[in-house]
Amino acid sequence: MTTAFRIIRLYALAAWVGSLFFFGFVAAIAFSTMPDTHLAGTIVRHALSALHQIGLIAGVVYLLFTLALLGTQRDSHPVRAAELLLVIFMMALTSYSQFSVIPRMERDRLALGGDVAQAPLDNPYRSHFERLHKVSVRVEGVVLIMGLALLGMAEIHGRDDFDRFN
């Protein structure tokens, strides 16, 4: 049973981290190939919402299966605590982006008439949108880095050379 739990949580985490990588390509391609930045932004905004849904679902799966592994007492490596903290922090950052940053960016975009690129550079709504965009990019980057670290940590469990901690 522990092997199945490890596999499920690894798949969930791989889906989350993989979708973060894929989103970066989608965003870059959308803004470099679309004739209209407003349309590109719409695509990216919807893709980001989907990415956040994937992340939150994957985070819950990872969290539940990690707790289940801890409950078996057959797989209770000390690094599990760090894994739990990382996945909770990743979910918190993802929630912050989805439920705080993105809605505020959307309010600014609507206040600008729907197209941020057409607004004057000195417009306070555009300045605020640009600041929030930087926050969003940094949050996604931090989640990606933590996800990569978590992927590396997930492989530790079940290996004989690390089981001496049990």
Oligomer: single chain
Q: How many distinct beta strands?
A: 0
Spell out the helices and strands N to C.
HHHH
How many structural domains? 1
Layout of secondary structure:
Layout: H1 2-33, H2 37-72, H3 80-111, H4 124-154
Helix pairs in contact: 1-2, 1-4, 2-3, 3-4
Structural account:
The model is unreliable at 159-166 (pLDDT under 50). The chain is mainly α and 166 residues long. It starts with a helix and ends in a 12-residue tail after the last helix. α1 (2-33) runs antiparallel to α4. 79% of the residues lie in helices and 0% in strands. The chain has one domain.
Write a short abstract of this structure:
It is built from four helices and no strands.
Kindly list the characteristics that best describe this protein.
166 residues; mainly alpha; elongated
